């Protein structure tokens, strides 16, 4: 058993794809036309870390209820954890791309960590490798 996808509500597909692929280095696994449950057109957009693993289903907001959670899908808490092999290289690359870091890198019992926001404002931990 594995957790295949986690939904991330985004304002707009293309900006989210650019952030996750160009800034964070994810792979675009799928971008296909699809339909909502009531038959309206949408896209099925999945990004995954290189090499696989749990993917993010980037779901463009579809109304005021979904608009309300963009950037705050975890009530202000860190909701996503990105573990990378080369922490310093990723941190530098993300800083150069203009990613907003809320904390300076620090060392914890589980490794190096720095909190950042994605393009919508959701909080993530950037974590050093296993």
Question: What descriptive keywords fit this protein?
Answer:
4-stranded mixed beta sheet, 130 residues, 2,3-Dihydroxybiphenyl 1,2-Dioxygenase, domain 1, alpha/beta
Structural features, described:
The strands form 2 sheets. Strands 1-4-3-2 form a 4-stranded mixed β-sheet, covered by helices on one side. Strands 5-8-7-6 form a 4-stranded mixed β-sheet. The mean pLDDT is 95. By secondary structure, it is of the alpha/beta class. The protein has helices at 13-23, 64-67, 87-96, and strands at 5-10, 27-35, 41-48, 55-60, 78-84, 106-108, 111-117, 123-128. Strand 7 (111-117) and strand 8 (123-128) form a beta hairpin. Helix content is 19%, strand content 40%. The protein has 2 domains: 1-70, Roll (2,3-Dihydroxybiphenyl 1,2-Dioxygenase, domain 1), CATH 3.10.180; 76-130, 2,3-Dihydroxybiphenyl 1,2-Dioxygenase, domain 1 (Roll).
Summarize the structure.
The protein has 130 residues and is an alpha/beta fold.
Question: Which band does the percent of strand residues land in?
Answer: 35-45%
The string of secondary-structure elements, in order, is: EHEEEHEHEEE
Biggest sheet layout: 4 strands, mixed
CATH class of the largest domain: Alpha Beta
Which CATH architecture of the largest domain?
Roll
Oligomer kind: single chain
User: Can you identify the CATH superfamily of the largest domain?
Assistant: 2,3-Dihydroxybiphenyl 1,2-Dioxygenase, domain 1
CATH topology of the largest domain: 2,3-Dihydroxybiphenyl 1,2-Dioxygenase, domain 1
In the sheet with the most strands, the strands line up as 1-4-3-2
Helix proportion: 10-25%
Annotation field: number of helices: 3
Number of strands: 8
Roughly what is the average pLDDT, rounded to an integer?
95
- Number of discrete domains: 2
Which regions contain 5 or more consecutive residues with pLDDT less than 50? none
Report, as a whole number of angstroms, the end-to-end distance. 21 Å
How does the helix and strand content classify structurally? alpha/beta
